[in-house]
Every structure is written in C-alpha cells, then in structure tokens.
C-alpha cells in the first residue's frame, strides 16, 4: 500500500478511501487529490463549495439515495436531516458517556462532511442521545499507554474535528442536554450558538488543569473568542466546570431552557439564523474565525509533535492514570 499525499484528508471527497491521485506512487512525488484545489485549508470547507441557498433548502444533488439524505447512522452518531427546513440533527449515542474516541471522532467528521456535501443541508444541531451527558470530552484511554503513532493519529482526529466544526459554513447549534467537560465543551464552544438544559447538575467547562494537563492553544483561543480574556483566563487556570446557571452568567452558553423545550428552542434559533442570506452570514463567520483557524492550520504538525511529547511524559501518564482510577472508583 503506497502512502497518500500529505494534502490528503477528510476534506477530500474520496476520504476515507483515497482515490488514485491521492496515493503517492513509488516516485513519492506528492500528487494531491484532484478535489484539493477546491479545498483551501485542509479541514476547512471553502465558501465556494457551498452554493448560497438563502430562503429555501436547495435541491438534493442527483444520484444520492433519498434515504441517505434523510437519516444515516453508522454506530456512534445518529444523523437526521429534515429536508423541508434544511436542518440536520447529529445525536451522539456512544455509551456510557459519549467520550471522543478515535472511532467517534472519525465518524463525526465523516458525518459532518456528508452533510456539508449535501446541498439540502444548511444547519446542524449537535445534541446527545445519552441521558445527562452531552459528551465527557476526549476519551482518556486514547491518551494512556499507547504508541506515539497512536497519539499522532488520535490528535490529528481531534484537530480535524475542531477544524471542521469551527470552520463549518453551515449554522451550527449546540443543544447541550447534559454535562460537557473539556473536549465536549470545545465542541459546544465551536458552534455558533449554545443552548443548555437549565439544570445545575449539568456542568460545562475546560477542566484540563484538573487532570494535570493543559488545554491546547486552539481550545484556549476558541474559549477566549466566546467569553473574553479575563473569564477564560480564570476559568482555564482553575479548570472550572460551570453549573448551567453559572455558565449562562459567564457567557459560556447563550441561553438555558427546560429539558423538554430544548429541541424546539434549538429549531427556533436555527430558523432565525437561517433567515439570513447564507453568503453574507458565511463570509462574516469566516472573517471572525479565520485568524484562529489559520493558527492551527499553519502549526498543525508542530501541535501533533507537542501533543506526543507532552502525553508521552511519565508524569502526564501518571496524572491521567490517577484521574481514570478516580473516575472508576467513583462509578464502581
Ligand atoms: C501546551 C500543551 C499542549 C498540548 C497539550 C497536550 C495534551 C493535553 C490536551 C488534552 C485535552 C484534553 C481534553 C479532554 O477532553 S480530557 C477529558 C476530560 N473529561 C473529563 O474530565 C470527564 C471525566 N468524566 C466525568 O466527569 C464523568 O464521567 C461524567 C462525564 C460527568 C459522567 O459521570 P457519570 O454519569 O457518573 O459516569 P461515570 O463517571 O461513572 O463514567 C462512566 C464510565 O465512563 C468512563 N469515562 C468517563 N469519562 C471518560 C473519558 N473522558 N474518557 C474515558 N472514559 C471515561 C468512566 O471511567 C466510567 O468507566 P467505568 O469503566 O468505571 O464504567
């Protein structure tokens, strides 16, 4: 099996099965996938790939089976698309706690890409099918006792997930129906709007320091862009998990609703956002987020190396093992 072009990634339509042009021949001259000229930075869809669909959902592209357009589910995420509104719901259903494993992240990126490539879809609501948990964040077992190759693959998938959500042209709304620490919080922060269930037992925040690890710069940038420097600085240093009412006060989430109203409210907010002309909203979003996205895109490999050397340290491994042990004791 030949290696694939360094440009190859889930931004290519042929992902995850590389087409002939994406595969490097024995000359090992990088030959990018033919779709790549259209893909500006890896992981971020260019505006030109999504035709404006203001005012109505665009027609289903020919050749795509109708059933696929309406609902698909591989394993860990249930995706439903309402073609009349142009709104899809991605429901996380990976028991026990929707942790972001490599498999989850891969399925997430493929599902989101399918929606991005479907002209009938203009907005996505992210929510959970697991009671009381939105997502427990990165799967800690993926960062414990694994090879450097595994850490690299895992971290690339985490980066890809963030680049796709934060750089997404569609309207992204997080309907946070449970606790959402660390990576779970990052997913919500990367959306355009966050609605959380009004229950003080559910908390949200970037609690990495509590695990003895450090939120990477792009987690921090995303947080700062939502809540501002001062709140982010205090919350990040303390590794704070904010109960829903406090999260609202700090601006971590935009509104709280009773659990039974969450999906209805998310649909109403989505309709407001979709009432704007797509091209104007998309260009504005891209303008607001470009600097932060570009920072990771231009330092992606360095960030992976940093993750590997940080995670491989015995002191970090020890902290993660102790944290997992604490979780196990608590649950068992
Ligand atoms: C400069 C620095 C540059 C680079 C830095 C490099 C690296 C560091 C960056 C890494 C960024 C990390 C981001 C993260 O997301 S780390 C994960 C953080 N997550 C958490 O802290 C959440 C932990 N979980 C909980 O608090 C609770 O489980 C939760 C979600 C509130 C649910 O509670 P409950 O319903 O009571 O469920 P249990 O606690 O009983 O859990 C059930 C079961 O799931 C296991 N589990 C929970 N969370 C995780 C997880 N994140 N990963 C893996 N496994 C998890 C838990 O152990 C239980 O397992 P058991 O076998 O006992 O049933």
TrEMBL record:
Record-linked CDD domains: crotonase-like
EC number: 5.3.3.8
Any GO BP: fatty acid beta-oxidation
GO molecular function: delta(3)-delta(2)-enoyl-CoA isomerase activity
Top EC class, one word: isomerase
Keyword terms of this UniProt record: Acetylation, Fatty acid metabolism, Isomerase, Lipid metabolism, Mitochondrion, Transit peptide
TM ranges: none
UniProt entry tagged with the keyword Aminoacyl-tRNA synthetase: no
GO cellular component, one term: mitochondrial matrix
Pathway of action: Lipid metabolism; fatty acid beta-oxidation
Function in brief: Key enzyme of fatty acid beta-oxidation. Able to isomerize both 3-cis (3Z) and 3-trans (3E) double bonds into the 2-trans (2E) form in a range of enoyl-CoA species, with a preference for (3Z)-enoyl-CoAs over (3E)-enoyl-CoAs. The catalytic efficiency of this enzyme is not affected by the fatty acyl chain length.
Record PANTHER family: ENOYL-COA DELTA ISOMERASE 1, MITOCHONDRIAL (PTHR11941:SF45), ENOYL-COA HYDRATASE-RELATED (PTHR11941)
Assembly mode: Homotrimer.
Protein name per its UniProtKB record: Enoyl-CoA delta isomerase 1, mitochondrial
This protein's encoding gene: ECI1
């Amino acid at each position: 099996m030949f290696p694939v072009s360094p440009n190859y990634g889930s931004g290519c339509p042929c992902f995850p099965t590389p087409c002939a042009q994406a595969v490097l021949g024995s000359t090992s001259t990088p030959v990018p996938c033919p779709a790549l000229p259209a893909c500006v930075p890896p992981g971020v869809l260019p505006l030109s790939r999504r035709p404006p669909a203001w005012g109505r959902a665009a027609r289903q592209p020919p050749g795509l089976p109708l059933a696929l357009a309406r609902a698909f589910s591989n394993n860990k995420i249930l995706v439903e698309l309402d073609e009349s509104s142009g709104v899809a719901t991605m429901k996380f259903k990976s028991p026990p706690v929707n942790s972001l494993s490599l498999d989850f992240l891969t399925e997430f990126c493929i599902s989101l890409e399918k929606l991005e490539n479907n002209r009938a879809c203009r907005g996505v609501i992210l929510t959970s099918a697991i009671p009381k948990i939105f997502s427990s964040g990165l799967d800690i077992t993926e960062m414990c006792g694994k090879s450097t190759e595994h850490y690299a693959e895992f971290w690339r998938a985490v980066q890809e997930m963030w680049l796709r959500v934060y750089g997404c042209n569609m309207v992204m709304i997080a309907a946070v129906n449970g606790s959402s620490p660390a990576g779970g919080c990052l997913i919500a922060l990367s959306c355009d709007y966050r609605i959380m269930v009004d229950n003080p037992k559910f908390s949200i925040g970037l609690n990495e320091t509590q695990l003895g690890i450090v939120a990477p710069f792009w987690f921090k940038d995303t947080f700062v862009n939502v809540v501002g420097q001062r709140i982010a600085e205090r919350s990040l240093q303390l590794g704070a998990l904010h109960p829903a009412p406090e999260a609202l006060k700090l601006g971590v989430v935009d509104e709280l609703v009773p659990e039974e109203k969450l999906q209805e409210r998310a649909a109403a907010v989505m309709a407001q956002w979709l009432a704007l002309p797509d091209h104007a909203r998309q260009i504005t979003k891209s303008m607001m987020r470009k600097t932060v996205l570009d920072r990771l895109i231009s330092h992606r490999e360095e960030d992976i190396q940093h993750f590997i050397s940080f995670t491989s340290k015995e002191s970090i491994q020890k902290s993660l093992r102790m944290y997992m042990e604490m979780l196990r004791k608590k649950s068992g």
